[in-house]
């Protein structure tokens, strides 16, 4: 029987999940700067707290905005209820009421920290500056409420999202977790020594 430190048989190329951090006040200060790649003004939007009667809509927005993201399974109702119970979860709505995404924030008032757990924008509404604007405004509100440090988790394969977070001021990357995505051939399965070495990498060097 494989031991706890043995490589997972039949599993595969791994994706690192990297935790980035930043002072809340620094991210909030970025809100006054325009993104030069956005060719038109950011659409007017607002955050609307998700209520139980909108769970179905939230699940569909989560499914579409997170499609293809590593280690993000399709959400069911039980998971959706658990998320909104534990976190501050808002739909991102345009002024006409159309929901174009969502944001989930885990707040620890004792430690004066908050984590942007999930930020999802529907594909047709990406590259319009909405995600950036939502993060900046939320950071400003958190900073005003006494939050000092912000965290955001990003998959190593999600280079576009990571680039956005770093432009906003997030840095100090550390390895948070490691996940596997596809089947390996027997010859590709790492030895116990190789597996152990992978597991002991605490820092991501940029």
Your description of this structure?
This protein is α+β, with helices and mostly antiparallel strands and 206 residues long. It is built from six helices and seven strands; from the N terminus they run βαβααβββαβαβα. The protein has helices at residues 24-29, 55-65, 77-86, 130-144, 159-168, 192-199, and strands spanning 14-23, 45-49, 88-94, 99-108, 113-121, 149-155, 171-180. It has a seven-stranded mixed beta sheet with strand order 2-3-4-5-6-1-7, sandwiched between helices. β3 and β4 form a beta hairpin. The longest helix is centred in the middle third of the chain and has 15 residues, at 130-144. Mean pLDDT is 80; it is low at 1-12 and 199-206.
Please provide a brief summary of the model.
The protein is built from six helices and seven strands; from the N terminus they run E-H-E-H-H-E-E-E-H-E-H-E-H. The chain is α+β, with helices and mostly antiparallel strands and 206 residues long.
